[in-house]
Amino acid sequence: MIKTVEWTNEGVVMIDQRLLPTQEVYPCYTTYKEVAEAIKDMVVRGAPAIGVSAAMGIALGAKSLPEEWTEFTSQFEQICQDFAATRPTAVNLFWGIEQMKLTLSACKANKLSLAKTKEELIKRAIAIYEADIEANKQMGRNGASLMPDEGVVLTHCNAGALATAGYGTALGVIRAAREIGKNISVYSDETRPFLQGARLTCWELQKDNIPVTLITDNMAGHFMKLGHIKAVIVGADRIAANGDVANKIGTYMVAVLAKENNIPFYVAAPLSTLDLKIKTGEQIPIEDRTSREVTHIKDQQVAPDDVTVANPAFDVTPNQYVAAIITEKGVAYPPYNKSLEKLFE
């Protein structure tokens, strides 16, 4: 299994996803600020992986804080704020931060020493990592039956092991479906402008010997119309209480095309991606990223100098386009304002 992020005694180790697929490099980040910068710069990306990385980064930062409660608490809060400022759309980031805050509160309530508190924060970060992998595997088992017995499944962006602690959300469902004998292959949208589908999804699936065909983003409708695609499955960065889904830019376009061609559009995401405090997708903050991601592919310029660029990193797919939302606690169907809430019971 690909190790997207890992806790070590030296620091937090991540696979640098900016260098894939041509280089497989695992730098070690030894300060919390380096981990936060790695999240912001997309060394690590994908909502669940961001949440896990933030938890590990907070534990790493706490290790070096002063052995005095007032100063420790103040600096711990600043560390959490620094992580909260890295990526605004992925709710798993804020979930991971909150889990670490709750751990600190429990340690205080139990009157643990600061040394013991630091140990507990590390244990909690590792537990979040382990729980994410298990959740992804259960999600895969829950969603495998929804996949066609044979044929092509389309995915957008990367919702695999690289977007999580391991195994994956959308790709986890595909993996699980193949494990029970379903003869499915994958069409992977390239996913401009950061090319997560081309660089990451294809790399992952090739490693697992799962047949994959790379297509450009503007080919999806063509292949749907020809009848090549039997289902679509994607991950998510935040899901509102009504089932509106924020995911990588271009997801909405794919969902509309799927609806037009009577192809089921599924979303796979852990409960930590559900934000029931937000009623609809209109309330989800959308991150804007640098224009260079659009005007360049790596160091190659592909647009004129000084051209005006819009680069929202995500879009919101309204719930009427979503056939089902697959989680580790089960599969939710419309109406989502009722079915999603039941998953937490």
- In the CATH scheme, the class of the largest domain would be Alpha Beta
Read across the widest sheet, the strand sequence of neighbours is 6-5-4-7-10-15-16
CATH architecture of the largest domain: 3-Layer(aba) Sandwich
CATH topology call of the largest domain: Rossmann fold
By secondary-structure content and strand pairing, the structural class works out as alpha/beta
- The CATH superfamily label of the largest domain reads Translation initiation factor eif-2b, domain 2
Low-confidence stretches: none
By DSSP, the count of extended strands is: 16
Count up the domains: 2
Strand content: 15-25%
Q: What shape does the CA trace take?
A: globular
Q: How far is it from the N-terminal to the C-terminal residue, by CA?
A: 32 Å
Radius of gyration: 20 Å
Q: Count the helices. How many?
A: 11
State the helicity in percent bands.
40-55%
Mean residue pLDDT: 97
Order of helical and strand elements: EEEHHHHHEHEHEHEEEHEEHEEEEEH
The main β sheet shows up as:
7 strands, mixed
